Structures are given as structure tokens and as C-alpha cells.
Amino acid sequence: MPKTILLGAPVQTGAAQPGCLMGPASLRTAGLGDVLAGLGWEVEDRGDAAIKPTGPIDCANPAVRNLAETAAWIDVLTTAAYEAARDSDLPVFMGGDHSLSAGTVAGVTRHAAETGQPQFVLWLDAHPDLHTLETTESGNLHGTPVAYFSGQPGFDAYPELTHAVPPENLCMMGIRSVDSAEHRLIAAMGVTVHDMRALDETGVLAPLRGFLDKVRSANGRLHVSLDVDFLDPDIAPAVGTTVPGGATFREAHLIMETLGDSGLVKSLDLVELNPFLDERGRTAKLLCDLTASLFGRRVLDRMTRSF
Question: Is 306 a member of any domain?
Fold first, then answer.
């Protein structure tokens, strides 16, 4: 029987809008563990990670907020994610704002290095999150994880990165809000980006299959990081960074079903779920359904849901 580990990461130090710390509890309340168990997975819930009180860390950029706390979360989650990847087939990291992925991706990449496999990342998000501590103008550190785990300079205040994800192993889908500093870094790094216009023109399947072929040919391990704002806010309102024009219900399920069919996904982030902004739990329930699609459930298995 395949095994998954659920780990809560109640992080909200990287976001401006409070409420993401309730995300793990919301996913548990929506029945994520039971859903995965019903699909034939052994489920171990390791509870929520936590950090110890921290002292301040100075930063040359005065806009940066909660640097010490965010760095502490990254340190804790790097170890926890490494252990979860080592101990299960497909751990799920329940957030929490997207700064947590700086830790989860660092941790699973460390495990991939030990297995001798390259790490790949599929970034499903409205934003590329490619700011450094110097370039962020908002000071919200949930905009920095990709720059960090891909080994970009400017992160001396974050934990030392043992293994970086090469930019050519990154694929972003659903991007539709990019700052000028991120534009420049995307061009310099050569990251593969399929923004919403590209997905409107080609559909989601062709670029996704192309990336999966690349992962498969390299015998790689794939981490999927799903931000709620990847989805259109009409179907997923529980996020503090809503950007109109996101993925539809069927596009999102097709992506997750295709990922599940591939057998390449070895870890998953569910991030930026803010239950304070939700409508009767509909976003948490949708994330549970999307996760079920990745874990093997198909359209004919899904119960009709009313809201």
C-alpha cells in the first residue's frame, strides 16, 4: 500500500493578509486524510510543524517583514520535508503561505540528491515568486521561495541551501502577475513559464506533457506546488492574493489527473489557503478534490458536490 504523510505548515509570516495559519486545520476539517485513505493510501498525519521564538534579523531592505520568523520556518520545514519524503511515497505539505515552499522544496531536493535523482518542480501559481530579499518592494516573503531554492544570490539571511533546483528543472504554469525584477530574472535564468495567455492558446495538456516527458527522461522526482491563486477566484475565493483569470475547475482537475497518471509526483504543496476568506469551506473542499485527482481519483469516482 502506498503511503502519504500529511504535514501542516501554519505559516503566515510571509503574507500580508492574516489567516493562512488556519489552512492546515481547514484541509483536515474538509477531510483530506479520509479522502486519501479512501483511495487506498496509508495516511500518517504528523500534525503541524512549529518554530521557536526568534530574535530579529537585520535586512538592508527596510520593506522586508518577519525575516527571522520566515527563516526559522524554512529551517524547520527543510528538515521536516526531507524526513517526510524519506519516509513516504508522496507527502503533502499543507499551508500556510507560499514562503513555506522555500523549506519544503529544499527538503525534498536534499532527499532527491541522496537517491541520485534530479529534482524537478512544477509551480502552479499566479506569481513566479522570484524576488530576492533585495528586490521585494512589498516585503512579503511569500514572493521569494523560487529564487531561494533555485540557488539565486541574496539569501544570506535564509538557511544555507544544501542542494538547489536547477532553473532548467522548473516549470511554471498559470502565471499572470509578474513584477519587473521577476521579469528580468526569468529571462536571465531561462525558467520555462506558461502564462495564462499561453494556456489559453495551447490548453494545459500540451505544455504539461512536455514537461513530464522531460522529468521522465531524466528519471527525476517531481514536486508540485499548488497555490490557491493559480485557480480562478470564482471557484477558489479563499486567498489573499486573488488575480482574475486563473485556471478553471476542469483545467485544474485535468492537470492533477495527468500528474497522477504520470506516476512522477513525489511531493505536493497546498499553499495560500486562507479559510477566513472562504465561502462555507468551498476552497478547502476543492483543494481536497484536486489532491484526490492527483492521488488517483477520476471524474467518474467523484461525488457530485453542492455548495
Answer: no
